[in-house]
Protein backbone atom coordinates (compact mmCIF):
# COMPACT_ATOMS: atom_id res chain seq x y z
CA UNK A 1 0.00 0.00 0.00
CA UNK A 2 1.21 3.50 -0.85
CA UNK A 3 0.97 5.41 2.46
CA UNK A 4 2.00 8.89 1.32
CA UNK A 5 -1.60 9.99 0.53
CA UNK A 6 -2.77 8.93 4.00
CA UNK A 7 0.25 10.61 5.57
CA UNK A 8 -0.63 13.82 3.74
CA UNK A 9 -4.26 13.48 4.84
CA UNK A 10 -3.21 12.98 8.47
CA UNK A 11 -0.99 16.05 8.38
CA UNK A 12 -3.72 18.18 6.80
CA UNK A 13 -6.39 17.04 9.24
CA UNK A 14 -4.10 17.68 12.23
CA UNK A 15 -2.53 20.93 10.95
CA UNK A 16 1.06 19.70 11.10
CA UNK A 17 3.86 19.56 8.51
CA UNK A 18 4.91 16.04 9.49
CA UNK A 19 3.13 13.28 11.45
CA UNK A 20 4.66 14.34 14.77
CA UNK A 21 2.61 16.03 17.49
CA UNK A 22 1.53 15.70 21.14
CA UNK A 23 -0.30 12.46 21.84
CA UNK A 24 -3.39 14.28 23.12
CA UNK A 25 -3.65 16.23 19.83
CA UNK A 26 -4.06 13.01 17.83
CA UNK A 27 -7.77 12.57 17.15
CA UNK A 28 -7.94 8.83 17.89
CA UNK A 29 -5.70 9.05 20.95
CA UNK A 30 -7.89 11.86 22.29
CA UNK A 31 -11.05 9.80 21.63
CA UNK A 32 -9.80 7.07 23.97
CA UNK A 33 -8.42 9.58 26.46
CA UNK A 34 -11.88 11.14 26.87
CA UNK A 35 -13.22 7.82 28.17
CA UNK A 36 -10.54 7.39 30.82
CA UNK A 37 -9.49 9.13 33.99
CA UNK A 38 -6.27 10.96 33.18
CA UNK A 39 -3.90 11.10 36.14
CA UNK A 40 -0.77 12.20 34.30
CA UNK A 41 -1.58 14.86 31.72
CA UNK A 42 2.09 15.54 31.02
CA UNK A 43 2.42 12.02 29.60
CA UNK A 44 -0.17 12.78 26.93
CA UNK A 45 1.54 16.05 26.05
CA UNK A 46 4.66 14.19 24.95
CA UNK A 47 5.49 14.19 21.24
CA UNK A 48 4.67 11.12 19.16
CA UNK A 49 5.79 10.36 15.61
CA UNK A 50 2.87 8.53 13.97
CA UNK A 51 3.69 5.63 11.67
CA UNK A 52 1.63 4.26 8.77
CA UNK A 53 -1.32 3.84 8.51
CA UNK A 54 -1.90 7.11 10.37
CA UNK A 55 -5.27 5.87 11.73
CA UNK A 56 -6.69 6.11 8.18
CA UNK A 57 -7.04 2.33 7.94
CA UNK A 58 -8.92 0.54 10.75
CA UNK A 59 -6.17 -2.10 10.99
CA UNK A 60 -2.52 -1.43 10.15
CA UNK A 61 0.27 -3.82 9.21
CA UNK A 62 2.77 -4.70 11.90
CA UNK A 63 6.20 -3.43 10.81
CA UNK A 64 9.07 -5.88 10.53
CA UNK A 65 12.40 -5.18 12.26
CA UNK A 66 13.88 -3.37 9.26
CA UNK A 67 10.85 -1.11 8.85
CA UNK A 68 10.70 -0.46 12.59
CA UNK A 69 14.34 0.66 12.57
CA UNK A 70 13.61 3.08 9.72
CA UNK A 71 10.60 4.48 11.58
CA UNK A 72 12.66 4.97 14.74
CA UNK A 73 15.13 7.04 12.72
CA UNK A 74 12.25 9.23 11.50
CA UNK A 75 11.07 9.59 15.11
CA UNK A 76 14.49 10.67 16.42
CA UNK A 77 13.26 14.05 17.72
CA UNK A 78 10.03 12.69 19.24
CA UNK A 79 9.41 11.21 22.67
CA UNK A 80 7.63 8.21 21.21
CA UNK A 81 7.12 6.28 18.00
CA UNK A 82 3.40 5.47 17.73
CA UNK A 83 2.47 2.53 15.49
CA UNK A 84 -1.32 2.73 15.29
CA UNK A 85 -4.16 0.25 15.27
CA UNK A 86 -2.42 -3.12 15.19
CA UNK A 87 -3.98 -6.52 15.73
CA UNK A 88 -3.39 -7.59 19.32
CA UNK A 89 -0.80 -10.33 19.45
CA UNK A 90 0.23 -12.72 22.21
CA UNK A 91 3.72 -13.19 20.84
CA UNK A 92 6.77 -11.49 22.35
CA UNK A 93 6.99 -7.95 20.95
CA UNK A 94 10.32 -7.09 22.51
CA UNK A 95 11.09 -5.24 25.70
CA UNK A 96 10.71 -1.74 24.26
CA UNK A 97 7.20 -2.04 22.84
CA UNK A 98 4.33 -0.87 25.06
CA UNK A 99 1.01 -2.13 23.69
CA UNK A 100 -1.70 0.36 24.67
CA UNK A 101 -5.23 -1.08 24.28
CA UNK A 102 -7.15 0.78 21.60
CA UNK A 103 -10.52 -0.21 20.11
CA UNK A 104 -12.01 -3.27 18.47
CA UNK A 105 -12.60 -3.72 14.75
CA UNK A 106 -15.34 -5.81 13.15
CA UNK A 107 -15.50 -7.85 9.95
CA UNK A 108 -18.20 -9.44 7.84
CA UNK A 109 -16.72 -12.52 6.16
CA UNK A 110 -19.10 -13.79 3.51
CA UNK A 111 -17.30 -16.79 1.97
CA UNK A 112 -18.69 -15.55 -1.33
CA UNK A 113 -22.32 -15.98 -0.20
CA UNK A 114 -23.49 -12.64 1.18
CA UNK A 115 -27.14 -13.41 1.82
CA UNK A 116 -26.58 -16.94 3.11
CA UNK A 117 -23.85 -15.76 5.51
CA UNK A 118 -25.80 -12.71 6.66
CA UNK A 119 -28.91 -14.78 7.41
CA UNK A 120 -26.83 -17.34 9.31
CA UNK A 121 -25.09 -14.58 11.28
CA UNK A 122 -27.98 -12.33 12.32
CA UNK A 123 -30.85 -14.82 12.19
CA UNK A 124 -33.83 -15.07 9.87
CA UNK A 125 -35.88 -12.30 11.52
CA UNK A 126 -33.10 -9.69 11.44
CA UNK A 127 -32.09 -10.69 7.92
CA UNK A 128 -35.64 -10.12 6.69
CA UNK A 129 -35.74 -6.76 8.48
CA UNK A 130 -32.49 -5.69 6.79
CA UNK A 131 -33.63 -6.68 3.30
CA UNK A 132 -37.04 -5.07 3.82
CA UNK A 133 -35.43 -1.82 4.96
CA UNK A 134 -33.14 -1.95 1.93
CA UNK A 135 -36.07 -2.33 -0.43
CA UNK A 136 -37.75 0.69 1.19
CA UNK A 137 -34.56 2.72 0.93
CA UNK A 138 -34.08 1.85 -2.72
CA UNK A 139 -37.65 2.92 -3.46
CA UNK A 140 -37.13 6.26 -1.71
CA UNK A 141 -33.55 7.09 -2.67
CA UNK A 142 -31.32 7.15 -5.72
CA UNK A 143 -27.89 5.66 -5.02
CA UNK A 144 -24.62 6.59 -6.68
CA UNK A 145 -21.26 4.88 -6.23
CA UNK A 146 -18.18 6.68 -7.57
CA UNK A 147 -14.56 5.70 -7.75
CA UNK A 148 -12.92 8.62 -5.95
CA UNK A 149 -10.26 9.10 -8.64
CA UNK A 150 -12.97 9.83 -11.22
CA UNK A 151 -14.41 12.82 -9.37
CA UNK A 152 -13.32 16.28 -10.45
CA UNK A 153 -12.60 18.99 -7.88
CA UNK A 154 -16.02 20.59 -8.30
CA UNK A 155 -18.02 17.36 -8.54
CA UNK A 156 -21.21 17.50 -6.52
CA UNK A 157 -20.47 14.15 -4.86
CA UNK A 158 -17.32 15.52 -3.17
CA UNK A 159 -19.21 18.48 -1.78
CA UNK A 160 -22.19 16.40 -0.65
CA UNK A 161 -20.00 13.82 1.07
CA UNK A 162 -18.03 16.53 2.86
CA UNK A 163 -21.23 18.11 4.19
CA UNK A 164 -22.61 14.78 5.44
CA UNK A 165 -19.27 13.75 6.95
CA UNK A 166 -19.13 17.04 8.85
CA UNK A 167 -22.53 16.19 10.36
CA UNK A 168 -21.08 12.86 11.53
CA UNK A 169 -18.07 14.61 13.10
CA UNK A 170 -20.39 17.00 14.95
CA UNK A 171 -22.75 14.25 16.12
CA UNK A 172 -19.99 12.19 17.72
CA UNK A 173 -17.89 15.13 18.93
CA UNK A 174 -14.73 14.12 17.09
CA UNK A 175 -11.85 16.52 17.66
CA UNK A 176 -10.75 16.35 14.00
CA UNK A 177 -12.46 15.87 10.66
CA UNK A 178 -10.33 13.38 8.74
CA UNK A 179 -12.31 13.75 5.51
CA UNK A 180 -12.85 17.40 4.66
CA UNK A 181 -13.48 18.44 1.07
CA UNK A 182 -9.79 19.36 0.63
CA UNK A 183 -8.59 16.04 2.02
CA UNK A 184 -11.00 14.12 -0.21
CA UNK A 185 -9.79 16.07 -3.21
CA UNK A 186 -6.16 15.24 -2.36
CA UNK A 187 -6.97 11.54 -1.96
CA UNK A 188 -8.84 11.60 -5.29
CA UNK A 189 -5.79 13.00 -7.07
CA UNK A 190 -3.36 10.58 -5.41
CA UNK A 191 -2.27 7.12 -6.64
CA UNK A 192 -4.65 5.69 -4.00
CA UNK A 193 -7.67 7.45 -5.51
CA UNK A 194 -8.64 4.45 -7.62
CA UNK A 195 -9.07 2.33 -4.48
CA UNK A 196 -11.55 4.61 -2.70
CA UNK A 197 -15.29 4.40 -3.41
CA UNK A 198 -17.78 7.11 -2.52
CA UNK A 199 -21.42 6.03 -2.06
CA UNK A 200 -24.21 8.63 -1.87
CA UNK A 201 -27.97 8.33 -1.38
CA UNK A 202 -30.27 11.11 -2.61
CA UNK A 203 -33.88 11.39 -1.51
CA UNK A 204 -35.84 11.09 -4.76
CA UNK A 205 -38.48 13.76 -4.33
CA UNK A 206 -36.04 16.53 -3.36
CA UNK A 207 -32.71 15.20 -4.71
CA UNK A 208 -31.25 16.08 -1.31
CA UNK A 209 -28.17 14.11 -0.17
CA UNK A 210 -29.15 12.13 2.92
CA UNK A 211 -26.44 9.48 3.34
CA UNK A 212 -22.84 9.04 2.26
CA UNK A 213 -20.08 6.56 2.98
CA UNK A 214 -16.46 6.08 1.96
CA UNK A 215 -14.84 2.69 1.44
CA UNK A 216 -11.42 1.38 0.43
CA UNK A 217 -10.87 -1.66 -1.80
CA UNK A 218 -7.53 -3.34 -1.13
CA UNK A 219 -6.94 -5.97 -3.81
CA UNK A 220 -3.48 -6.80 -2.46
CA UNK A 221 -4.81 -7.86 0.94
CA UNK A 222 -8.22 -8.96 -0.29
CA UNK A 223 -10.10 -6.67 2.13
CA UNK A 224 -12.87 -4.19 1.36
CA UNK A 225 -13.00 -1.62 4.17
CA UNK A 226 -15.94 0.57 5.10
CA UNK A 227 -14.31 3.70 6.51
CA UNK A 228 -16.85 6.37 7.44
CA UNK A 229 -20.53 7.19 7.02
CA UNK A 230 -22.42 10.45 7.31
CA UNK A 231 -26.21 10.91 7.61
CA UNK A 232 -28.51 13.91 7.47
CA UNK A 233 -31.07 12.53 9.89
CA UNK A 234 -33.34 15.56 9.56
CA UNK A 235 -33.87 14.88 5.86
CA UNK A 236 -34.20 11.09 5.87
CA UNK A 237 -37.82 10.08 5.21
CA UNK A 238 -39.61 8.40 8.12
CA UNK A 239 -39.41 4.63 8.20
CA UNK A 240 -35.96 4.42 6.61
CA UNK A 241 -32.77 3.28 8.34
CA UNK A 242 -29.97 4.22 5.98
CA UNK A 243 -27.35 3.27 8.55
CA UNK A 244 -28.40 -0.37 8.21
CA UNK A 245 -29.11 -0.36 4.48
CA UNK A 246 -25.74 1.21 3.69
CA UNK A 247 -24.04 -1.86 5.13
CA UNK A 248 -26.16 -4.32 3.17
CA UNK A 249 -25.75 -2.40 -0.10
CA UNK A 250 -21.99 -2.22 0.38
CA UNK A 251 -21.82 -5.95 1.16
CA UNK A 252 -23.41 -6.55 -2.24
CA UNK A 253 -21.13 -4.04 -3.94
CA UNK A 254 -17.99 -5.55 -2.38
CA UNK A 255 -19.18 -9.00 -3.42
CA UNK A 256 -19.53 -7.81 -7.03
CA UNK A 257 -15.93 -6.57 -6.85
CA UNK A 258 -14.87 -10.03 -5.68
CA UNK A 259 -14.28 -9.36 -1.98
CA UNK A 260 -15.28 -11.91 0.68
CA UNK A 261 -13.59 -10.14 3.60
CA UNK A 262 -15.24 -6.84 4.54
CA UNK A 263 -13.87 -4.71 7.38
CA UNK A 264 -16.61 -2.69 9.06
CA UNK A 265 -14.18 -0.38 10.84
CA UNK A 266 -13.42 0.35 14.48
CA UNK A 267 -15.86 0.87 17.34
CA UNK A 268 -19.68 0.59 17.64
CA UNK A 269 -19.24 -3.18 17.73
CA UNK A 270 -22.73 -4.00 19.02
CA UNK A 271 -24.32 -2.06 16.16
CA UNK A 272 -22.08 -3.82 13.66
CA UNK A 273 -22.97 -7.24 15.05
CA UNK A 274 -26.62 -6.40 14.35
CA UNK A 275 -25.76 -5.75 10.69
CA UNK A 276 -23.69 -8.88 10.20
CA UNK A 277 -20.27 -8.63 11.88
CA UNK A 278 -19.09 -12.20 12.41
CA UNK A 279 -15.46 -11.60 13.35
CA UNK A 280 -14.23 -9.09 15.94
CA UNK A 281 -10.58 -8.33 16.73
CA UNK A 282 -8.85 -6.39 19.50
CA UNK A 283 -6.48 -3.60 18.52
CA UNK A 284 -3.50 -2.00 20.25
CA UNK A 285 -1.48 1.13 19.61
CA UNK A 286 2.22 0.46 19.97
CA UNK A 287 4.23 3.08 21.84
CA UNK A 288 7.99 2.71 21.48
CA UNK A 289 10.16 5.02 23.61
CA UNK A 290 12.59 7.30 21.80
CA UNK A 291 13.43 10.28 24.03
CA UNK A 292 10.79 9.94 26.73
CA UNK A 293 11.52 9.71 30.44
CA UNK A 294 8.00 8.48 31.20
CA UNK A 295 8.28 4.87 30.14
CA UNK A 296 6.84 3.55 33.40
CA UNK A 297 3.94 6.01 33.24
CA UNK A 298 3.04 4.71 29.79
CA UNK A 299 3.18 1.13 31.08
CA UNK A 300 0.75 2.16 33.83
CA UNK A 301 -1.56 3.89 31.34
CA UNK A 302 -1.52 0.79 29.12
CA UNK A 303 -2.50 -1.30 32.13
CA UNK A 304 -5.62 0.83 32.63
CA UNK A 305 -7.08 -0.59 29.39
Give an overview of the whole structure.
- This is BioF2-like acetyltransferase domain-containing protein.
- It comes from Rhodococcus tibetensis.
- By secondary structure, this protein is of the alpha+beta class.
- It is built from eleven helices and ten strands.
- The chain has a ten-stranded mixed sheet with strand order 1-2-3-10-4-9-8-7-6-5.
- Helix 1 (about 5-15) runs antiparallel to helix 8, helix 5 (about 115-120) packs across helix 6 and helix 6 crosses helix 9 (about 240-255).
Question: What topology emerges from the helices and strands here?
Answer:
Blueprint lengths: L3 H11 L5 E3 L4 H7 L7 H4 L2 E4 L14 H10 L5 E8 L10 E12 L4 H9 L1 H17 E7 L8 H17 L8 H9 L6 E8 L4 E11 L4 E9 L10 H16 L3 E6 L2 H6 L4 E11 L5 H10 L1
Parallel strand pairs: 2-3, 8-9
Antiparallel strand pairs: 1-2, 3-10, 4-9, 4-10, 5-6, 6-7, 7-8
Helix pairs in contact: 1-8, 5-6, 6-9
Protein name: BioF2-like acetyltransferase domain-containing protein
Q: Which spans have pLDDT < 50 for at least 5 consecutive residues?
A: none
**What is the 3D shape?**
globular
Q: Structural class of the helix and strand makeup? A: alpha+beta
Total strand segments: 10
Order of helices and strands: HEHHEHEEHHEHHEEEHEHEH
Strand order of the largest sheet: 1-2-3-10-4-9-8-7-6-5
- Mean of all residue-level pLDDT scores: 94
Number of helices: 11
Main β sheet profile: 10 strands, mixed
Strand content: 25-35%
Helix content: 25-40%
Q: Give the C-alpha Rg.
A: 20 Å
Terminus-to-terminus distance = 30 Å
Protein name: BioF2-like acetyltransferase domain-containing protein
Amino acid sequence: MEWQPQRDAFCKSHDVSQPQLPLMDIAHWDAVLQRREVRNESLHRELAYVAPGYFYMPVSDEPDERRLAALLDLASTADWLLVPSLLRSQRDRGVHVIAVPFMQAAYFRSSGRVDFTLRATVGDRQYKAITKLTSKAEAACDTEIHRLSELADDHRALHDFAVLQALNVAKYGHSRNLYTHNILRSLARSPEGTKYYLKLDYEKSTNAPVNASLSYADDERGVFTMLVQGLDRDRIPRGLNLYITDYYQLYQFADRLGFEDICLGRGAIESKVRVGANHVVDLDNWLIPVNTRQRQAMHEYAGMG
